Amino acid sequence: MGFFRGVSSFFSNVGSAISSGLSAAASWCGEKFSTLVSVGKIALDTVGGIAGGLLQSLGLFGKQETPEYIGDRALQADAQGIFPDTFEDFSDYMESLRNFELDPEKSKRTTVEEKIFKGLEVAGRALEDKFNAPTGSMANVWLLAGTNPDYFTSERFQSILNSGMDVASIVDYFEGTLGGGEALEIEDQLVNIDRQTYPGKDDQTSREEIYTAVEAAKNILN
Questions:
Q1: Which ranges in 148-202 belong to alpha helices (H)?
Q2: Are 150 and 220 within 8 A, CB to CB?
Q3: Quick one: which of 185, 171, 105 has its CA closest to 140?
Q4: What's the pLDDT tens digit per position in 84-141?
């Protein structure tokens, strides 16, 4: 319960239906991400920007769609009993959100942060559907984005996800919880991804960027 009490300090007072939708988003995003957002260690708007760019580049969001845009609809849809599990295909759920008729007064009473937070859940579930990943696993993408947005860009995330790397293992690496051999394996994979994503970049430069990102992440995650 302490987790939800901490998150409640971030969320402003809204209707119970929207609060329920935010609780669902907090549950999906996980305790660590939600708590770091609630205490201001992770900039939600920055993560939202990375998420929007990533989802648009993968064709999961339209060019004008953002986590804020999608989250606003998802919160109000939740209140009417429209959830991802209601649909056989996640793409049908997304279409239902796009066609959802918003109540403008409810939108006004819902903060941008609340909309983005819910939108990150929807975005993450869309990634899980595309990459056939377990529910909740893609919350690690937003956690990494929040710890070092300069390193974890939309472009780099697209390369990581397309490579099939285990995102949870990358989180462990940046937290410094892996053994030497496991850590080196993750580091080598990230360097290889850099080589493919940014042709011409030398391995040493890639490793130095990784080490800098690790130090920044540890200050937030630990």
A1: 154-163, 167-175, 180-197
A2: no
A3: 171
A4: 988 999 999 999 999 999 999 999 999 999 999 999 999 999 999 999 998 888 999 9
